[in-house]
Amino acid sequence: MQNFLQRLNHRKVFRVATVYSVVAWLLMQILDIVLPTFNAPLWVNQTLLLLLLLGLPLVTILAWLMDSHTEEENEQKINSSQQQKSFITGGSIVNSLAFGLIFLAVTFLLMDRFLLSSNEQANNSQNNGNTSQQIVQRTNILLPSDQTIALAEMMPLGVGRKSLAISNQGNFLAYVANESGSLKIYIRPMDSFEAYPLNGTEGGFSPFFSPDEQWLGFLTPTHILKIPVSGGSPQTLTESTNVYGITWGDDNNIVFSEREGMRIASISADGGQKNILLESTDLVMNPALLPDNKGILLSNLSSVIQLFDPETGVVRPLIPRGRDARYIDSGHIVYAGMESYMAASFSLETMSIEGSAFPILDGVLVEALGASQLTFSNNGILAYIPGADMGIVTPVWTDRNGNETPISLISRRYGSFDLSPDASQVAISIVDGPDSDVWVYDFDRQTTPQRLTVGKGALFPKWSLDGSNIVFGAQNPANSDVRARLDIQGSGAVESARIDSDFADLIAPDSWGENGELVVSAISQADQGLDLYVIDPEDQERRPFLVTENSEWGASFSPNSDYVAYTTDVSGQYQINVKRYPPTEERWVISSGYGEEPFWSEDGSEIFYRRGNQWLTIPIKTSPEFEAGVPEVLFEGPYGNVPGISYGVADNGEKFFLLKQPEQELPKEINIVNNWSIEI
To answer: Which of 33, 183, 261, 503 is most deeply packed, by most CB within 10 A?
Structure first.
């Protein structure tokens, strides 16, 4: 070993290797500076570093082979060196050790540069990729030129339902297309530029995906169906009418609100019998499941978000002003607020809201009854239709030809209303505050509306025939069916008295008869639905007019009070029927197809009714026998559909009081936001 070290010391190998190592190190420093300046790709730097690493052993071997010293000269030098032991221990060994250390250092440096740095860069690249995945990205999808998104005017009765859905893993987007006045559901794979139609979904709406993304559920006016996402034949799951919100749970059960929110039910996605979860005297809509089926979020008629526990049957308020709520994995409930799309922190442990709600998104199209045209996946993809809140409306007069005349009332969230007998005033509910109340506006004076009720949750105002009183229903059961004596001049306090206080949880006064009787729509039993009763205000005696297992509401007395027109779903869809008063077994179906909200003309020669965004008239004869003519469309337009009767008639049917919705072009695009929840 000592001999070898002596020879190594006298050869040029050590010096060559040392020089090469120093030069290689200097080159590496230069490469680190120069290559990024020219935006050289990573492989250039890696290749040069690899060549430097391989060059060290090659240069060392060449230096060894090319050494010109003879063996004899080497031996003489070695013998001479042996006589100077201090040189052997202090020179050759030290130099050899130095060479070894430098060689190891350079080798480690090259490996660090080539291998460790590459791994670090790969990790950084991966981290940068993960970071990019957490960046909020916005884009939109444009529909073909022959399509628009189908909105409320295309839905049964003109009540807006969901028009789009995104699957749980975000792989598919479904939307309801309006193709020349016909409905069809399309599927857009998110990795494709094209959407394809699902044949068999014609006339369908409210799409919703199965958790495994294999099926798409949808509604028709009378049934709930499902169809493979890849296409195929639709399968009918159950019969159900007036469904206002539906969702497919992880347990393979489908939960939905039917009968206009009077019942929450579920059914297996494989079919079978419906399971009734809740019979409600409050109208509850848009069910959304919490994780692990801990509860169901609901929205009621008064825009209160509620939490329903199917185990106990208890429904309790959760958020005072909001609609269409859903839970997201960030630990928030997101919902359509009165002005913006909102979020509120929610604890699954305490099942309660924590902190204050805050706005997260503007410009989402919201239908009049609160269905927001927005959907999101579990992996953070949000899709929504841009537009206005269609619940913000403006009162207008419209004639029989649809020509509008403005009214000096500001745009806001109005509810049900009624014109005074001489049409000089309107009693109208305003619901965009913390509570809904009835206000009175004088068309001639055009002064600020006078507030009639305070904090009573009042809806459905109805003038008495002499114009001296207003009755109204209430969302709060403790205030149901209150009669208020109106002092329009403001010279005295408004007096009020309760009518039949223990009658029902929800009462809507519909129409006064000429003898002072009042016909009302009421939910008196949770499993019964809306029925019609007649109340005598003098002695508060109540008697049924039409109480069945079906829904009957929106009654209107004929001018001589011999007949009552009303809305019923006895045929499976809402239509206008007429019965004698007092009631007999006779019944006339007078509307053609869908129809709701009948209203007699002052002379009794017409009955007006609403069908979505159309207003129709039917010529009527009551003598010698009842006879109805053929319905005819008077006009149509984007007017709000509020609970109860959503229009007023004046001047014997020559003009109509309506709530005009914001101008909204038929939408042709869907906005997409990736990783939207990180902004919450």
So the answer is: 261
